[in-house]
Amino acid sequence: MNSTAAAALEVRGISKSFGSLKAVDDVSFAVGRGEICGFIGPNGAGKTTTMRICATLDLPDLGDVLVEGTSVIEEPRFARRRLGFMPDSFGAYASTPIAHYLDFFARAYGLRGAARKETVGRVMEFTGLEAIAGHEIAALSKGQKQRLCLAKTLLHDPSVLVLDEPAAGLDPRARVELRELVKTLASMGKAVLVSSHILSELSEMCHTIAMIDRGRLRATGELATVARSVRPHVAVFVRTLAGEEKTERFLLERPGVANVRPEGKGLVFEFEGGDEGAADLLEAAVRAGLKPVEFGVRGVDLEDLYLEITEGRAS
Amino acid sequence: MSAAVPLLARLDDRLNPILVKEVRQALRGLYFKLTFRFSILAATCVGVVILLSGGGVGAERLGQPFFIAIYACLAAAVHCFVPFLAFVSMSGEWDENTYDLLVISDLKPRQIVFGKLLSAGVVAMLHYSAFGPFLVMAFLLRGVDLYGVLILIGGSTVYSLVLSAVAIAASTFGRARFARVATMAGLAGFLIGATGLSIAAAVGVMEEPELLRATDFVHVVSGLSLGIVFLGAFAVAVATSRLAHAEENRSSELRIVASLLVAAVLLWGAGLAWTMRTPALLLAPLLVLGFVLLLPFTFFVTESETLGRRARRHVSASRLAALFSAPFLPGGGRGLLLFLAVIVIAALCASGAFLLNDDPQMPIAEAARATAVAWSYAVVYLGLSSLVSKGWTSAPKGRIRARLLVLLAFIGPLFVPSVVGFFAESESLLEMKHAGNPFWMIFLAADSGHRGQPASSGWIFAAAAAVLLANMPRMARGVREVLAASAARQERERTGAPAVP
Q1: Do residues B243 and B93 touch, judged by C-beta distance below 8 A?
Q2: CA nearest neighbour of A71 among B497, B317, B87
Q3: Cβ separation of B310 and A73 shorter than 8 Å?
Q4: pLDDT tens string B27-41
Q5: Residue B372 scores a pLDDT above 70
Q6: Which of B17, B101, B500 is facing A91, going by the closest CB pair?
Q7: Which of B17, B155, B296, B340 is the residue whose CA sits 20 to 30 A from B263?
Q8: Are the C-beta atoms of residues A226 and A241 closer than 8 Å to each other?
Q9: Do A87 and B25 touch (CB under 8 A)?
Q10: Of A56, A92, A105, the CB nearest to B96
């Protein structure tokens, strides 16, 4: 998110130390409405501390977090009404039925009478918990518990969601379901900050990323922009009817092309010209009579990017 | 019936959410089921044993031992099990990772604490109603004073709530496992002792029912009740403060409770002096108050000096209101300012008692001097320690060190001379007859009339005045900060900048 004017969640230069350990060091980024921002970093990088500060649970030593333009430090109650936080450790009263649990938190968020019953029903329907409303929490599976925690997070209809490792420990099916729920929430205009270790999950649903390592923010912005800042080239796959040798010769003569290598029935090369340049290259290949049948810019591999950034291969 | 349904629904909506959740959980929980059944079973067994050993239902005055036995079972339930349930319930919020979820909801810390307290009250009421038939039977067996029974049950209900408040406050300390176990053990010991006191009171009331109608005894009981109620009020304020966000104002509520305690003690003392026609009696509670206030003020004067961002934003725009609110706002310097204000009020009351005293036989001058000595020691302990430690209080660990220093300022001069006396073979030092012992100095001041010589207490007055003077710049800075925050708010309101964009 480049412009902070429309940001629903804005982290402004926060720092937090625990004794001599600097857990978060001058971290700034923003998440806009309807945007999903993936918060990525290894264990102990400062993700949870940052998220807890956003959720008003911890206090930064320096800096501030704004929720819809209001400081979470100066007006924590305002921030809490607009922010839904899903912690990494699920808090639940084990012997309580799902419906009672949600009813309690609906009351805690000030929902009254018919509105409370309607809201509890709606979030149970949205998260697929209706059929098991009477079950005690202790009897739920990990995936059901995560959905219950998300349901609780949505009760007061927050405009900003902060989800700390929501997919941790879920099986593939539950992960897909959760991903779809998060996407739906973003399409409803909610700003979502989500952390996860499963980077393939994040690359499929996030519009932007914020990458943190040892307390410092290493990269932030749209995935493609971050990728370009780390690696100016993109990987392009091409398959032509003119044969590999002729195609390779053609490619090596073009500016911005490097590291051409065979892959499957075609060639893969690194290209620095951006989308416009790639379109020109394809047009030139057609004019040169190479008869391209496949030509595509490869998507950004978040795992590679993450390793490059956190292992110091890129600054 | 049809009209009652919407009313009940509205009432249900108005109920504290924590109360609803807690009662639902408590009634389903194993702890309540076990303790409830155990106490009823114990009461039944004890009742039967007393009836059999006392000659049966028709025996003379069997009601008294029967009531005491049943009350002992009831006291164990409502003064021990129920407060412990409140402790377990509050601790459970940390154990089950639900504390964070409560804090980020719309619930205020006070609502959380009162919800827990009210649910403890509901559970206690269940016990009282279950014990109702036993108590009626005790009355029917004769030998029981109804007035005494009503006083005991009423007092026991308030006592149960106060103990639950203390248990809830205790649960907010020590969230690490070791600290939790230590707190739990300490609380269990405290509750057992408190239950013992309650049973002893019941025995006293049953055996000497006429005591309840004696004026002196009523004064003592009302004073004790005041102390117990304020213990509960402090416990609630402490728990609320501990649950509040770090940037919230965590101090004002405690300061208000401390000020109310001062007002209540003064009123009680005035009532005592008025009914006994002895103005000097007002000085006795004042003397005790000087030491009682040491505990809360140890925390107030060792708070971080600067106002939090949130507290600063909420300072009144009116300069006058800001000035009057300054002693109640967080900050060590402002804590001392409040103590100074309390001293002035206490001195005014003591002067009033002095002037109103028309009995030449009453040693009012000695009593006033003893009270002044007590307060001067309190000023020195608080003022000197907080002056030394004012640079530490910005960090939590520094604040703990500063509080320990106040404790050290009290304990050190009290015991070190005795140790020296042991090696130097000085009898007076060994017997703690030295200036480091405030109680000895108070005794000397109070006894000076009998000995026909004035007490040498001038130096402690001088020390207290010097400490107050040395702390003046700090207090002034505290007021200036509040006035600056007031001016900033005035400016915000003038420019139309909203508090919440």
Answers
A1: no
A2: B497
A3: yes
A4: 888 888 898 999 999
A5: yes
A6: B101
A7: B155
A8: no
A9: no
A10: A92
